[in-house]
């Protein structure tokens, strides 16, 4: 009888430990690879269309594949003054509009996963909602993503259009107001995250 008790107690402890650690076994964390990722902001002006690229970004995604694919965490941060267009005057106007002296980063923080739908082997169509913060103003935004997963890499692709004035940003002007920027901008991203 004592022998049975001696065996059962460690077995129960082991079983409880396995149950508690199972969710952690299935959770996989991937960190953004800045050199492989690309994020471009595109817009219009009274003179010509324009693009500006983010040179510094970081972020993380945590996937859980216990029963089905779920996203536990998704964050993205762009250093505001790493947005570069190869035109110094335009960059200066951008930083002024974004008030980069006060607001160093543009961030996205996942709040809800609406849908993850498989679209082929290791490919998913993803609908999420999150908080996008630009120039210190946070707005809830809906994002549609194409996600590809492998054992050591996640790729997220998508685009999002919004108005600058939604974030209380005055569209930049140049040459004493003779060149005006359109209110709507589109962010296009191809984000690579590695384990």
Automatic annotation (TrEMBL):
| Domain Lipid/polyisoprenoid-binding YceI-like: residue ranges | 29-194
> Has keyword Signal?
yes
Which spans of this chain does the record mark as coiled coil?
Answer: none
A Pfam family annotated for this chain is: YceI
Q: Which domain of life is it from?
A: Bacteria
Q: State whether keyword Signal applies.
A: yes
Signal peptide bounds: 1-27
- Keywords associated with the record: Signal
Q: Kindly provide the name given to this protein in its UniProt entry.
A: YceI family protein
Which species does the entry assign this protein to? Gelidibacter salicanalis
